[in-house]
Specification:
Length: 239
């Protein structure tokens, strides 16, 4: 994949098994975020992108689908919590679902918002703040609000780009717990800079270096069997 004629992703082969957490690790600038943003084609929004190859969702090419449909089915949560500041907590979760036609009427929408906030393990903390704006929430709560907003679209795949990078340890643990629960309902692909986190919650580890996926496999295999020196170094020392 090329951005402005510079090759950024180089012959990447990657598979995210259903109902599992696939973690992507690698040094800064290796292409992790670009790869993640390719999976739901948001990388195309502001950049001049040229593709070679294919990305399949349940066997269907993303390039044969409407990009809006792709982004509903493959939702994304970014490193910095980015709730809509001018909308209430309720509206933050409800609006994208409403726009995408996920809930048909007000009752269904209320149910959906509650469901998404419960799944994101945030409901108990915000059920009395639904009409407040996200500035009253902590950073970790704002990030879980963004997860709830993504979940309300009922995605099949959830992409997360370092979702715990900017929050404290307790909230990071809550998000990890949330993801472990969520994988029963969807496929999760997450970028992390934290090797301990990768080993703690990843079912599959994928190591990226210089735009290539240099190692991939079940976490046990990667830890015990990999002979790739860079993968060993990255997973033991971090990056
Ligand atoms: N819109 C863009 N235009 C030009 N180059 C880009 C663009 N987006 C990413 N790149 C380049 O692609 C390469 C990979 O960047 P990317 O952000 O994907 O790496 P990363 O592994 O996620 O890094 P980090 O861990 O620091 O977030 C970098 O060299 C970057 O400069």
């Amino acid at each position: 994949m090329w951005i402005n004629n510079v090759e950024i992703l180089k012959g990447v082969e990657f598979c995210a098994p259903k109902n599992s957490i696939s973690v992507i690790v690698g040094p800064s600038g290796s292409g992790k975020s670009t790869f993640l943003k390719s999976i739901n084609r948001i990388v195309e929004l502001n950049t001049n992108v040229r593709w070679q190859g294919d990305i399949l969702l349940n066997g269907v090419s993303l390039f044969d689908m409407d990009p809006v449909e792709v982004r509903r089915r493959i939702a994304m949560v970014f490193q910095t919590p980015n709730p809509f500041p001018h909308l209430t907590v309720f509206e933050n979760v409800a609006l994208p679902a409403k726009v995408n036609g996920v809930a048909k009427d007000k009752g269904a929408l209320r149910e959906l918002v509650k469901w998404a906030l419960e799944k994101a393990m945030l409901w108990d903390e915000v059920k009395d703040k639904l009409e407040k704006h996200p500035n009253v929430l902590s950073g970790g709560q704002r990030q879980r609000l963004c997860i709830a907003r993504a979940l309300a679209m009922k995605p099949e795949v959830l992409l997360l780009d370092e979702p715990t990078a900017n929050i404290d340890v307790i909230n990071a643990k809550k998000i990890e717990e949330t993801l472990r629960e969520l994988k029963n309902e969807m496929t999760i692909i997450m970028v992390t800079h934290n090797p301990n986190q990768a080993l703690r919650i990843g079912d599959y580890i994928n190591v990226m270096f210089d735009g290539k996926m240099i190692e991939s496999g079940p976490v046990g295999d990667i830890v015990l069997k990999t002979r790739n020196e860079l993968a060993i170094k990255l997973l033991s020392e971090g990056w």
